[in-house]
Every structure is written in structure tokens, then in C-alpha cells.
Design goal:
Distance between the termini: 37 Å
Bound molecules: zinc ion
Number of strands: 0
Strand content: under 5%
Oligomer: single chain
């Protein structure tokens, strides 16, 4: 089994990241059809970003 990088990196929007990396999601769309979630995030911004891990290094 291959370990796909499905985890959203810190500071990224899970949805945008997933859509950018998982081509299957957009493959369902028709040629001229917009991806509503993507359009929504582009217009309104991303409602949630994966929080960056606090660095505890000293
Ligand atoms: Zn999308
Ligand atoms: Zn987003």
C-alpha cells in the first residue's frame, strides 16, 4: 500500500488542498462546470485553515 499524502499541511485549507491534489474530485465535473466549493473559497476566502503546529523547540 502506498501512503498518499492526504493530510492537509498546516496553514492550508483542507478543501482547497484536497481539490488541488485529488484530481478525482474535479473529474466529476462537466467541462464547463465550476467546482462550487472551490469558487466559494476563491470568492469568500477559506473559512478554515489547518492550524500550524506550535513549535516547542527552544
Ligand atoms: Zn474544487
Ligand atoms: Zn479553501
Amino acid at each position: 500500500m502506498s501512503v498518499a499524502a492526504t493530510q492537509t499541511p498546516p496553514g492550508q485549507c483542507p478543501q482547497c488542498w484536497e481539490h488541488a491534489h485529488n484530481k478525482r474530485i474535479h473529474r466529476k465535473l462537466k467541462p464547463r462546470e465550476d467546482c462550487k466549493p472551490c469558487v466559494d473559497h476563491m470568492r469568500n476566502g477559506c473559512p478554515y485553515l489547518v492550524p500550524k503546529k506550535p513549535s516547542r523547540r527552544r
